Amino acid sequence: MADIHSQRILILDFGSQTTQLIARRVREAKVYCEIHPFNISLKDIEEFAPRGIILSGGPSSVYDEGAPAVSRDLFDLPVPMLGICYGMQLTTRTLGGRVEKSTHREYGPADLVIDETGDLFHGLAPAPVRHKVWMSHGDRIEVLPPDFVKIAHSASCPVAAMRHAERPIYGVQFHPEVAHTEIGTEVLGNFLFRVCGCQPTWNMRSFIETATADIREKVGAGKVICALSGGVDSTVTALLINRAIGSQLTSIFVNNGLLRKNEPETVLAFLKGMGLNVHYVDATERFLTRLKGVDNPEEKRKIIGTEFIKIFEEEAGRIGDVNFLAQGTLYPDVIESVSFKGPSATIKSHHNVGGLPEIMKLDLIEPLRELFKDEVRSVALELGMNEDLVFRHPFPGPGLAIRILGDVTEERLEILRETDAIVLEEMKKSGWYRKVWQSFAVLLPIRTVGVMGDERTYEHVVAIRSVDSLDAMTADWTRLPYEILARVSNRVINEVKGVNRVCYDISSKPPATIEWE
Prior knowledge:
- The chain is of the alpha/beta class.
- It contains 14 helices and 18 strands.
- The protein has three domains: 3-195, Class I glutamine amidotransferase (GATase) domain (Rossmann fold), CATH 3.40.50.880; 204-390, 3-Layer(aba) Sandwich (Rossmann fold); 409-504, GMP Synthetase, Chain A, domain 3, CATH 3.30.300.
- It has helices at 19-28, 42-48, 86-94, 184-195, 204-219, 232-245, 263-273, 284-291, 297-319, 331-337, 373-382, 387-390, 410-430, 482-495; strands at 8-13, 32-37, 52-55, 81-84, 98-114, 130-143, 148-154, 157-164, 169-172, 223-228, 249-255, 278-282, 322-326, 363-365, 438-452, 455-468, 476-477, 499-504.
- The strands form three sheets. Strands 2-1-3-4-9-8-7-5-6 form a nine-stranded mixed beta sheet, sandwiched between helices. It has a five-stranded parallel beta sheet with strand order 12-11-10-13-14, with helices on both faces. Strands 15, 16, 17 and 18 form a four-stranded mixed beta sheet that branches.
- Helix 5 packs across helix 11.
- The radius of gyration is 25 Å and the shape is globular.
C-alpha cells in the first residue's frame, strides 16, 4: 500500500446525513479515510488495517427493533475508536451501558462544558468555559458502560462525551464534523493525531506521485483507452494516465448528441491543446435512436452507459490489443451507489459505477475513485490545468438526457441547449458562476398556456437549478439575486423558441437530488 494510505481512518456509516462531512473533515486534516457500511465484516476491517475507527451518527434509536448494530468483538480490536451521536449511544449499549429517551431533546446549538481535557479535548478550555457545539439527538446515556468516565456535559445532556478509563475508546454526543461546532476541528484533530497517532500525509501532490506509479504498475506494457467528456474529472483522469504511460493511452471523446451548446468543438480544441491523443467519435444518431421513446430515468442511464461501453469496445478493437478502460469515477459516485443499508437502498445507479463491469471486456482504471470533487480540482491545478476549466460546473455523464424529463428528441435537446447556454452566460456575467457548485436548466414534460404578442401560446416549461455544495453529497439551493433570475427568465422566454414559462428549483439535497433524474 502506498505511503499516503498507510495511515488511514475507517468511518462506519449508520445512515447519518453528515457521514460524508466526517470524511471531508478527516481529509482536510490530510489524513486518508474511507466510508464503509456499518455491517462490514471484522475480517474486512482487519484487512483495511485502520489507524482509527469513527462510528457515525444515524437516524435510529439504539433500542429500536432492527436498529443498525455492530458486533461486540469490534470493540476488542486494538484500534482507537470515536463514536459520534448514534455511534456513542451504540458504543454505550454494546458495552453494557444504558441509553434511554431523553426528557429534553437537543436539536441545534448547545453549550458544552468540558469536565476533563485529556487527549480528546487537548488544548480546549475546561469548565466553567462553555463551547458552542451542534447537537441532534432525542436519546441520552443514563448509565455509562463499565470502565467509562464522563468527560463533558451540557444543560440537557449529563454525558455529552465519555472515554474508556484505560483504552482509547471515546464517544461524543455532539457533531464535531459540522461547521456549527466551534471546537469540531480541534476535537477531530486530537483524535486523529494524539489518539490515533496519524501524520498529515494525505495531499494532492503525494496523490499524483502515488497514482502515477500505481497506474504504471497496473498497466505495464498494456494499452488504455480513456472515456473523455471534457469535464474536469475525465480530463484529470486522462492527464494522470498520460503522465504515467504516455503513448500507451488513447483518449476517446464520444459526442453522444447529449452535450451542451458548442461543447464538442470547444472540448476537442482544449484536449488536443493539452497534448492528449484524442480520437473523436460522433455517435449522435446512435444514442438518440436508442433513447427514442424512453422516459424512465434509470433506463436512460443504463442505455447510455451500455452504449458508451459498446463504443469504447469497438474503438478498442480498431486500436488493437487494448486492455483497460479509464473512467473519471469519484468517491461520491461510489458512496451513492453503495448505501449504508446495502445495494438495495442505493440512491441511484451512477453512470460510472452501476452495472458496467459485468458487460465489459476491458479492465477498469479509476484513478480518482477515492477523491472528492474539490480534491480532484486540486489535482487539476497541480497538473497545470487552466482555472476556467478546473472550476467548470459539473456535467453528468448521461448529459442532457437526464435534464430532459420524458422523451429525448432533437427538438427538446435544442430547447434545453439554448436555455442552458443562457443560464451559464448570465451566471458568468453576474460573477456568480464561481460562487456556486452548479447551475443548469431542466426541460419539464409539460406545457402551459401563455400570451405572446396578444396571442395564446401553449409551450414548454423549463426549471432553473442552482445549488451550493462542497462535494455534491449534500447541497442547498442558491439564493440567487432576483435580478439574475429575472434576466435569465426574460432572455429564455424571448430567445428560446418553444418556451413560455421559467421556474426556479428551491429544493435541497436531501431530500431532493441535485439532478432531476
